[in-house]
Amino acid sequence: MPATYSFKEDLVWLRLEGTYTTDDLRQTVTDALADPDLPAAPKFLMDVTQSGSLTKRSANDVKSMAAFFAANAGALGDRLAILAVKGGLSYGLMRMASVHAEFHDLETEVFDDREAAITWLYQRCKHPGVIEPTST
Fold it and tell me: What count of Cα atoms within 13 Å lies in the side-chain half-sphere of residue 5?
């Protein structure tokens, strides 16, 4: 299936690979949120690095999906990290989606490094866009 999810502890990894529709993505997110194994305090990472569909989406499709994610912000833990290939059209589209989602109160960031994305998900923010350092 081109739009899938998996759990690793409290990380929910949404993987978008190959060809899929926006309805496929909506259904996958809906299924993940309804899964009885969904962690109590989930951290969502959406990986579009292998997406074959994203670059075929219109700006309206991207904004619509951003609004869908924002409408589910509370269930997503109020944060969404997006993993995309830097420098490509997918990265730019995800930056646009990030801005739109933030406008609707879902804190979103786009990364090209998986570990950086996961680290960001586990950091707490005092103010949108300002990440507090974690203590060691």
Answer: 26
